[in-house]
Specification:
The protein is mostly helical. It has a single domain, classed as F1FO ATP Synthase (Up-down Bundle). Helices cover 85% and strands 0% of the residues. The protein contains two helices and no strands. The protein has helices at 3-39, 44-74. The radius of gyration is 18 Å and the shape is elongated.
């Protein structure tokens, strides 16, 4: 397999595994938020603020991975 094929495979893995991890993380966090707000409804506003902040950080980490994958796909620094 050529270097371009390996770069394409790596980009697919970066995006695919990053999306899988982000989706699982946000899903688990949402479930825990629902459980916590059912136990203590008076803390729902504080927990919701923290949940949305963490959801944004998880998505930001995934989008950074997408940006790196696109850099390798379109401006490959490994090709001489």
């Amino acid at each position: 397999m050529s270097a371009v094929g390996f770069v394409a495979l790596a980009c697919g893995l970066i995006i695919g595994l990053g999306a899988t991890g982000a989706c699982l993380g946000i899903g688990m966090m949402g479930g825990k938020y629902i459980e916590a707000s059912a136990r203590q409804p008076e803390l729902m506003d504080k927990l919701q603020t923290k949940m949305f902040l963490l959801a944004g950080l998880i998505d930001a980490a995934f989008l950074i991975g997408v940006g790196i994958a696109m850099m390798f796909a379109f401006a490959n620094p490994f090709q001489g």
